[in-house]
C-alpha cells in the first residue's frame, strides 16, 4: 500500500497515517482502541457501523457503551494480558460480529486493539479466510500477526509520544511512516498467503537496517541506562533479501536482549564477514547482552513457536526470526551463560553488488 492510502477515516483521536487507519485499510474491518482508563480512545467509522452506534459518541466513552459480550471479552484481555482471537459476538438482532482482541503493551500502559469483522463479510474475504485456514491454521497465523503488530506498535507509540511532545519533527515522522509501511507490508503479505516472494528480494545494507532498528529502540535503551556498543566490521555489508523481514528478524533479537537486561546492561552489536562450512562468504551479525542468560534446559526449546518464559510473551519472536533466517538461506546460533548473558548470531550469505 502506498503512503497516500494511510489517511485516517474514523473518529479516532490519532492523526492521519495512524496504525488504526492502516489496519482498517489492510483488513477492511472496524478497529477500536481502548486506552489505559478503559475508555475508547479511537474507533474507525466501520467499527461504529458494525456496532450500529454513532462514531462520535463512542469516542472517549466507557467500555459499558459497547455491547456487553464485547465489553466482557475486553475486560478478560485487560485482566489476563492475552489475546482473544476470532470470537463470535452476538448483537441481538439476528446479526453477529467476529472480534479479535489484542493487548498492546507500551512502556507506560496496556492498550487494547479490537478488530471487528462482520460475519456476513464479502465472499472474497470469506474465501481468503478459508484458504488461510487450509494453509497454516488460522490460530497460529493470527497469533504471529498479533506478535508483529505488537512489536511495531511499541515503536510507533514511542515515536508518536515523542512527536506529540516535540511538535513537528520531520525525521521522527519519517521513522513512523517507515514503521507503518513495514506493518502494512507484513499484513498484506499474510492476507495474500504468499510465501516470501523471492522476486521481491533486493540488495539490503545490513548496517542501515541495524541502525534503523536501534533507533526505534533508542527510547528503551536510554530508559534502562543501557550502554550500546556498535562494531560494524562486515565489508561489504550487503545481502540479498527482504529488508522488512530482515528488520523484523533483527528487532526480535534486539528486543529479547533488552528484555533480558535490567538497568546498566551492555548491548553489543557487531558484524563481521566470515567463511562458512563450504568456504562461502557469510555476513554475521552478533547481538550480545549482559542479561539473565538462558537455562541449559531451555536452550533447545528457544525456537519452538509459543515457547516463552515471560508473563506477557507470545513465544513467537525467535520462531519468526528463525523462519526468516532460513528463508534467506541463513541461520541463527545462540550461546548463553545463566547470570552472565547471551549472544545470538544471525548468519546470512554475503552478497556483493556488481
Ligand atoms: N537474549 C535473551 N536472554 C535471555 N533469554 C532469552 C533471550 N532471548 C530469548 N530468550 C528466551 O527465549 C524465550 C523465547 O523468546 P521469543 O522471542 O521467541 O519469545 P518471547 O520474547 O518470550 O515473547 P515475545 O517475542 O512475543 O515478546 C524467551 O521467553 C526467553 O526465555
Ligand atoms: Mg521475544
Provide a descriptive summary of the structure in words.
The chain is of the alpha+beta class. The protein folds into two domains: 190 residues, PAS domain (Beta-Lactamase, 2-Layer Sandwich); 152 residues, 2-Layer Sandwich (Heat Shock Protein 90). It contains twelve helices and twelve strands. The strands form three sheets. The protein has a five-stranded antiparallel β-sheet with strand order 2-1-5-4-3, sandwiched between helices. Strands 7-9-10-12-11 form a five-stranded mixed β-sheet. Strands 6-8 form a two-stranded antiparallel sheet. Strand 11 and strand 12 form a beta hairpin. The N terminus is likely disordered. The structure holds adenosine-5'-triphosphate and magnesium ion (MG). Adenosine-5'-triphosphate binds next to helix 10 and helix 12.
Topology diagram in text:
Layout: H1 19-27, E1 30-34, E2 40-43, H2 45-50, H3 55-58, H4 68-80, E3 84-90, E4 96-105, E5 110-118, H5 123-136, H6 138-166, H7 170-192, E6 202-205, H8 206-216, H9 218-223, E7 227-232, E8 238-241, H10 243-260, E9 266-275, E10 281-289, H11 296-299, H12 317-327, E11 331-337, E12 341-349
Parallel strand pairs: 7-9
Antiparallel strand pairs: 1-2, 1-5, 3-4, 4-5, 6-8, 9-10, 10-12, 11-12
Helix pairs in contact: 1-7, 5-6, 6-7, 8-10, 10-12
Bound molecules: adenosine-5'-triphosphate (ATP) and magnesium ion (MG).
Amino acid at each position: 500500500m502506498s503512503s497516500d492510502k494511510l489517511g485516517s477515516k474514523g473518529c479516532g483521536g490519532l492523526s492521519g497515517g495512524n496504525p488504526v487507519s492502516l489496519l482498517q485499510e489492510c483488513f477492511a474491518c472496524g478497529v477500536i482502541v481502548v486506552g489505559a482508563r478503559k475508555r475508547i480512545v479511537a474507533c474507525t467509522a466501520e467499527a461504529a457501523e458494525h456496532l450500529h452506534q454513532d462514531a462520535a459518541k463512542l469516542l472517549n466513552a466507557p467500555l459499558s457503551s459497547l455491547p456487553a459480550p464485547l465489553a466482557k471479552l475486553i475486560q478478560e484481555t485487560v485482566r489476563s494480558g492475552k489475546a482473544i482471537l476470532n470470537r463470535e459476538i452476538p448483537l441481538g438482532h439476528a446479526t453477529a460480529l467476529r472480534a479479535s482482541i489484542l493487548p498492546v503493551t507500551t512502556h507506560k500502559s496496556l492498550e487494547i486493539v479490537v478488530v471487528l469483522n462482520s460475519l456476513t463479510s464479502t465472499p472474497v474475504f470469506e474465501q481468503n479466510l478459508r484458504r488461510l485456514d487450509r494453509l497454516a491454521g488460522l490460530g497460529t497465523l493470527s497469533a504471529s500477526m498479533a506478535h508483529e503488530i505488537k512489536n511495531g506498535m511499541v515503536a510507533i507509540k514511542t515515536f508518536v509520544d515523542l512527536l506529540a511532545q516535540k511538535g513537528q519533527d520531520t525525521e521522527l515522522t519519517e521513522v513512523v511512516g517507515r514503521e507503518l509501511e513495514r506493518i502494512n507490508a507484513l499484513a498484506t503479505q499474510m492476507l495474500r498467503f504468499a510465501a516470501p516472494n523471492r522476486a521481491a528480494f533486493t540488495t539490503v545494507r545490513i548496517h542501515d537496517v541495524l541502525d534503523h532498528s536501534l533507533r526505534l529502540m533508542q527510547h528503551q535503551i536510554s530508559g534502562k541506562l543501557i550502554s550500546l556498543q556498535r562494531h560494524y566490521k562486515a565489508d561489504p555489508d550487503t545481502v540479498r533479501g527482504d529488508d522488512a523481514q530482515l528488520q523484523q528478524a533483527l528487532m526480535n533479537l534486539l528486543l529479547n536482549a533488552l528484555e533480558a537486561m535490567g538497568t546498566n546492561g551492555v548491548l553489543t552489536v557487531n558484524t563481521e564477514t566470515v567463511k562458512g562450512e563450504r568456504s562461502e562468504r557469510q555476513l554475521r551479525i552478533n547481538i550480545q547482552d549482559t542479561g539473565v542468560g538462558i537455562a541449559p534446559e531451555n536452550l533447545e526449546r528457544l525456537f519452538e513457536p509459543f515457547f516463552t518464559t515471560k508473563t506477557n510473551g507470545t513465544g513467537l519472536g525467535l520462531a519468526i526470526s528463525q523462519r526468516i533466517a532460513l528463508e534467506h538461506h541463513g541461520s541463527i546460533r545462540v550461546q548463553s551463560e545463566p547470570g552472565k548473558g547471551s549472544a545470538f548470531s544471525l548468519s546470512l550469505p554475503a552478497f556483493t553488488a556488481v
